[in-house]
Amino acid sequence: MTWEMIFTLLVIIAMMIALVKEVARPDLIVFVALTSFLVVGILTPAEALAGFSNEGMLTVALLFIVAGAIQKTGLVENAITTLLGKTKSERHALFNMLIPVTGASAFLNNTPIVVTLTPIVRKWCTENNISPSKFLMPLSYASILGGVITLMGTSTNLVVHGLMLERGMEGYSMFELAKVGLPISILGIAYLVTIGYNLLPNYSSSKTNINEKSKEYLTEMIVEENYPYLDNPLVNKTVDEAGLRHLDGVYLIAIIRNQEKIYPVKHTTKLNANDRLIFTGLISKIAILQERKGLSLKTGTNITLDKLKNGNGQLIEVVVSHQSALLHQRIKHTQFRGKYDSGVVAVHRNNEQIDSKIGDIMLKPGDTLLLLAGDDFIERSSQTNDFYVVTLLNDHPLINKMDRKKAWFSCGTLVLMIFLVTIGIVSMVTAMCLTVVTFLLSKTITVNEAKGYVQIHVLLLIACAFGIGEALFQTGTAEWIANQLLAFSMPLGKFTILILLYLLTVLFTEVITNSAAVVLLFPVAIEIAQRLGEDPLPFVILITIGASASFLSPIGYQTNLIVYGPGGYKFTDYMKAGFPLSCIVMVSTILTLTLAY
């Protein structure tokens, strides 16, 4: 082995460890790894930065805008709501949901679909006395299955398409993946409404849990009007001056003054006599509050989370995203109140309330935050990708009222572009450019909305991953890995080689991300095909499917992460329901590829 190969392997191993341990955002970790190859001279600047101009990566950026425009019309959520209302049984309702979700995910980014449908499905389940945990994981899985039917189904497909074009290959046609994707989607849906439905947990909704447990982490204190012997030292003091901003284990989330409810509480808010202060956090730390001169504990309080909302204010549940700028920061350092017009009531991780000071909690992807939000929260949060707004706990979910004219215009435009790509008149990237321009000129979306739909962190991750994949090619590391796999599996036959390559792809997807996994394994798949003297296309399709088929954990795929908290799932629930589905997809994929190619 050369020093370049050794260095490349060490960097990739270090990168994967950092990704598993979540030491920083995934895009930053991959960017640091790419920079190391640039610094030591393994890659030239042109090679390292080639991913930023790759056709697949640019198409992904445009697809974000197209999916956002379709989502804005409200067509998908209205269709699902209608279908759920026309059901005779739970399984029938589940089937009615899975079919359109799978179909929509074949042509749209599945992340916004799941974000939009999660509160709708959960509300419907609650109203019909059905456990949301029976529906939300299948919602995610169906969106994943639909994504492997067409070229534009997921960013992973487009990334591989771009890699193929760079290597002088033909690239995927619009429905190339359907030969494999359609059979696994049919088998997957059949599994989810039969055996899978029985394996899914039957948890009560998180709204019920929150209402039941609200008094466990809410405390009410009174600013005394007649403090013994002298005036109350807290009256007319700001929250900061009163020493109520950085407490040990408790967090001031609201002030009730007469009939007015003040939240989020700013550090400049002044205290009045008889103010009722609502704290959240560790009740074991209540003694700290009782020691404050001028405060008295109100026993037998009737305050619950539902009673704290005021005007347009809401109790809102959000999930911290993989792309969040809040990752690996303590809540007290994020300027949460000022930035989002909301205060954090509670943080749940793995369906458990975290027993530590809210301000000191280091946020991770998938954390569920219960927020007491002001009037401006929705507008402010919509301008970031920091988290997914998954439900309003008090009122109807945040769904758009369907604009029928824009809905059918948007869908008609998309169908026309898909047709033009399918018959070969335009390329995928050209079609997406035309679609976005059409949406902008017709005022279906605004320029600011288009910018908001683009997930910069995802694009940075993909672009950097291209450079790392190039390093694997340039140094011969990909060839070395391929040789090791072949040496181990060749005596067992080509079928075993396919199984090992698929399992390796799934492992990478669960450990890092789907797009990064497929970029890293693309050169390995090409080298294996060349060593065997085979057409590389089936090997590339294999890793494309394997990279998207993430069913075993909530962290491997964004849609799994979105439903993790709202469904009240445990980490092991994904393994229990997802493992049989993974086996079905793997066997079906390998058999179909063997027969077709």
TrEMBL record:
Domain of life where this protein originates: Bacteria
Molecular-function GO terms, alphabetical: monoatomic cation transmembrane transporter activity
Domain RCK C-terminal per the UniProt entry, residue ranges: 205-295, 303-387
SUPFAM superfamilies tied to this protein: TrkA C-terminal domain-like (SSF116726)
Topology class, membrane: Multi-pass membrane protein
Primary residence: membrane
Name of the protein: SLC13 family permease
Gene source species: Aquibacillus koreensis
